[in-house]
Structure prediction request, 342 residues.
Amino acid sequence: MVHAMYLEGKKVTLDTIRAAVQDKFEQTISRSTIRKQLFQIGFKFRQVNNRKLLVEKPQVVAARNAFLRRIRKIRSSDPERTIVYLDETWYNQFDMRTVAWLDSDDVAGHKPVTGKGKRLIIVDAGSDSGFTPGAFMCMRTDGKSADYHTSMNASCFEDWFRLQLLPNLPANSVIIMDNASYHSRCANKAPTASWRKEAIQEWLRVHDVNPDPDLRKVELLELVRPLKQTREYVLDKVAQEAGHEVLRLPPYHCDLNPIEMVWANMKTHVRQFNNTGHLNDVERLLLDSRDAAPPDLWRNCCRHVRELEEVYWRADGMMEDIEPVIVSLQDSSSDDSDSESD
Prediction:
């Protein structure tokens, strides 16, 4: 949104971002929340011309540029190549509509429920032609953890990737995913200070280095340093062996994954018909919502992402030719300062 506002020549402050969010999403968000989110998605303070400004971290911009360059090359060189997006989401057992028609004594209507109940973790994938057949997976958890990512692990995700995703993909597909830790188990992990000394010695021997037995751990780690290689991921190798390519989203860029918008559509459908809160019913509704997705849903979401890729590409070009994208923390329309100390 910040990039789009700059490309349109609009003034970017906390208040203008707040107004844009209200207009686009019909959501009211406080200025302090927007400031917090700007920091979390990779902006930072920087002193420019004696004014405090927010700029994107260089490593975030570099990762985005690398991703955009690769995806643009894929789209231009082979327009028919299937691009598959995957992700995980969750649905709470008692996530249902909380409003209904009541009589004057509030007697009629559904019995209210308290708490969110257990949680269903959903893993799925799709492309501009729709959901990937056979890729739907649903797991039940107790819902106690605030972050659903703690209910997923590399072993579970890799089994799904091998058994449910890869066999159902068209040949030579591009698989786009984020950088969640369970997506990114390292295949060539190098020793760290947490390793036992004996394990470091064995790793060095495997890499044709025979360390002196008297060397301390810190000295062994110095021998490891020049042997470190570019990180390789288990799933990247698995996909490559199956004839596919994995492309990872840049950090903080879930907006470049159309499945996020598809999830929102599914959850709205389930929430509308979730009357019992029974886990079996909720799981059935999730599958029904998958089948009931409009034929053009994925196509429209993928088109939106392609348009957003162009917005980022042009914005980054503007940054390089003119000046880094900046967000002013001083807002003349409000007495409440946008300073970092607020």
Summary: The first strand starts at residue 43 and ends at 48. Residues 81-98+113-188+229-293 form a domain with the Nucleotidyltransferase; domain 5 fold (CATH 3.30.420.10). The CA atoms of residues 172 and 243 lie 5 Å apart. Confidence is low (pLDDT under 50) at residues 48-54, 331-342.
